[in-house]
Amino acid sequence: MNDIKLKSMLEQFYIEDIGDGDLSSEFLFPETAEGEMNLIAKMDGVFCGKKVIQQCLHVVDPATTVTCHVMDGDPLKKGEIIATANGSVHSLLKSERVLLNLIQRMSGIATETNEVVQRIKGTNTKICDTRKTMPGLRMLDKYAVRVGGGFNHRNGLYDAVMLKDNHLAFAGSISKAVQTVKENVGHTVKVEVEIETLEQLKEAIEAGADIIMFDNCIPKQILEWRKIVPDSIITEASGMITKETIRDYALAGIDYISLGYLTHSVQAFDISANVSLNNR
Fold first, then answer.
1. Of the residues 51, 126, 132, 182, which is catalytic?
2. DSSP 3-state helix, strand, coil percentages of the chain (rounded to 5)?
3. What is the pLDDT of residues 120-141, one digit of tens each?
4. Domain identity same for 13 and 129
5. S-S: 113 plus which of 40, 150, 154, 170, CB 3.0-4.6 Å?
6. Distance CA 90, CA 21 (A)
7. Annotated catalytic residue: which of 96, 192, 215, 255?
8. Do residue 68 and residue 193 come from a single domain?
């Protein structure tokens, strides 16, 4: 994770949330009030966000001390204390909401990713994400997938070529599309082609695609069609895949399964922040 980018993101998030000041806390607590905040898991799952906790608290107030009791990727049990922070009550309360919003989302992604990774355990297939992330949070979303045991697909439009139906329709054919992009991109950039039919698969292989995505194909089709795919070509499956069917796709011998819902439909992991005043 890029620490410089993270700090810049958090500064903008707190500018948005705090604005000109915390009206709820500044009139109730004296500036000298000190306290402790405990972050507590309210459910079982996988934790993600240690660096976010530390950076959030220090962006608001560098004098805040933070102790994280778990590491990213550690299992969490309901009632477990994730981290403890000590410092100005004003600072702790200002930090709370943004901090919780981020680590709840990240831990939710890590927990869900870990669940599907466990469902295909014992196979050679890997779980990966997509670009269906929350705008502005892609770095954190994709980090959370890795923490949960998954892998990252391309980070954006800039680091890999992925030729989908709209691209292929404009180019006129898979062969023309692959040829055109390979003539223009660098040799380190991989080219992925999305296919839905056996004819498209054969054309993508002949065209020299580096990765072939089986889109909206059932496991039986993949199992049969994979027989003609050279070992040098990476295979991926996406579309219509659920937790109930994911193992069937893995057993079909696919290399990667990409799941958009890991990040676009994440259920926040329940975490509470309890703040107590010192010397009361």
1. 132
2. 40, 20, 40
3. 999 999 999 999 999 999 999 9
4. no
5. 150
6. 10
7. 215
8. no
164 carries an active-site annotation: yes
Residues 96 and 217 grouped into a single domain: no
Domain count, the chain: 2
What is the CATH number for 60? 3.90.1170.20
Distances (CA, A) of 122 to 186, 236, 244, 250, 253: 36, 18, 16, 10, 12
User: Is the same domain home to 164 and 241?
Assistant: yes
Q: Is 36 a catalytic residue?
A: no
Active site residue 132: yes
The number of C-alpha atoms within 13 Å of 75 and in the hemisphere containing its C-beta is: 4
Contact in structure between 229 and 214 (CB atoms under 8 Å): no
Residue 127 in tokens: 């779980």
Q: Which of 36, 61, 80, 97 is catalytic?
A: 97
Q: Mean of the per-residue pLDDT values for the chain?
A: 96
Name the E strands within 206-255.
211-215, 234-238
Q: Is 115 labeled as catalytic in the residue annotation?
A: no
Give the residue numbers spanning the domain of 109.
3-116+267-277
Let me know if 74 is a catalytic residue: no
Say yes or no: 260 and 271 in one domain.
Answer: no
